[in-house]
Amino acid sequence: MKVIEIRKPGGPDVLVPAQKPVPVPGPQEVLIKVAAAGLNRADVLQRLGGYPVPKGAPDHPGLEASGTVVALGEGVTQFSVGEPVCALLQGGGYGEYCVAPVAQTLRIPNGLDFIQAASLPESYFTVWSNVFEFGRLGAGQSFMVHGGSSGIGVAAIQLASALGHTVYATAGSDDKCRFCESLGAKRGINYKTEDFARVVLEETDRRGVDVILDMVGASYLMRNVVALAPEGRLVVIALISGSTTPVDLYQLMAKRVTITGSLLRPRDVAFKAAIKAKLEAHVWPLLDSGRLRPIVDKVFPLDEAGKAQAYMESSAHRGKIILSVS
Ligand SMILES: NC(=O)c1ccc[n+]([C@@H]2O[C@H](COP(=O)([O-])OP(=O)(O)OC[C@H]3O[C@@H](n4cnc5c(N)ncnc54)[C@H](OP(=O)(O)O)[C@@H]3O)[C@@H](O)[C@H]2O)c1
Known about the structure:
Layout: E1 2-6, E2 15-19, E3 29-38, H1 41-48, E4 64-72, E5 84-88, E6 97-101, E7 105-107, H2 114-117, H3 121-134, E8 142-145, H4 151-162, E9 166-171, H5 174-182, E10 187-190, H6 196-203, E11 209-214, H7 221-227, E12 228-236, H8 249-255, E13 258-261, H9 269-288, E14 296-301, H10 305-314, E15 320-324
Parallel strand pairs: 8-9, 8-11, 9-10, 11-12, 12-13, 14-15
Antiparallel strand pairs: 1-2, 3-4, 3-6, 3-15, 4-5, 5-7
Helix pairs in contact: 3-4, 3-9, 6-7
Bound molecules: NADP nicotinamide-adenine-dinucleotide phosphate.
Residues 40-42, 122, 126, 147, 149-152, 171-172, 176, 191, 215-216, 237-238, 240-241, 262-264, 312, 315 line the site of NADP nicotinamide-adenine-dinucleotide phosphate (NAP).
């Protein structure tokens, strides 16, 4: 099969077509003929040599894909050959075939095509686990996401607002802020021209928000604490600005805030199976009904994976970038 491999760590041009054997599904796995694969920032980090591949995972990139089940591993009863699916992968989405654990494979929501379906798994597994499990965003509570126009941000805004939460989102331009508002955010905050903590306090009568999903890291830490409500939770999922910074512990004590974070990819199949069950119960019905809509910014052919990643690195996109495979 054709795959896109990382020839060596470097710029987008190190992504080149290569041939690999079609993988064989193991017990409780399915073989998928890939129709489309979603791009994620982690793929860019992997290309740059900064994101080690977990043991046993394919070394060509791609954390999510959609397509048709073409073979079943031992013990698989939940899916049949010919069924359209989308899946969260350990790697290997940038190729004509991939293998996925049943526990990370979902049916395609009603009315969505393969391109749209490929945009779902990484964002919704990440948002559900971090915002609703680790962040414990509860009924009536308020929420802010940084990077509101990112693939993750778009899913977070739509899902939290569909579930009745007041949502704030930061983004790097006024246009992106209006885009976040069109998805359900009460207020988009342009982090280049506004102090997000000050805006959030003004918007919430100085109370702050209950949960923040952060991908910026070090430089935002103490301002995130300022923007949190008493007993608020900060969940860090990426470190765009770095990982170390001084912390004023008094501020944590005074507000009783919790700071946590997580990485999805290294978690085991049992963890992902538990999140899949939550997605099937709470998120897929909202996709079926059209209440949540996948936002696909641009589609590139598989051979142009380098161009697609360069486009992602430009941060010009809103929502997801997808590779069309077959
Ligand atoms: N921990 C996990 O398990 C996990 C899982 C999935 C994703 N993630 C992380 O979540 C983030 C979003 O992922 P994605 O695939 O959705 O990426 P993406 O679509 O490429 O989004 C990244 C966004 O970050 C914003 N950004 C870039 N530089 C920034 C800066 N200096 N300050 C503030 N914002 C900045 C950009 O928007 P602006 O134009 O608004 O700056 C861009 O849209 C990535 O950092 C990714 O690594 C983590």
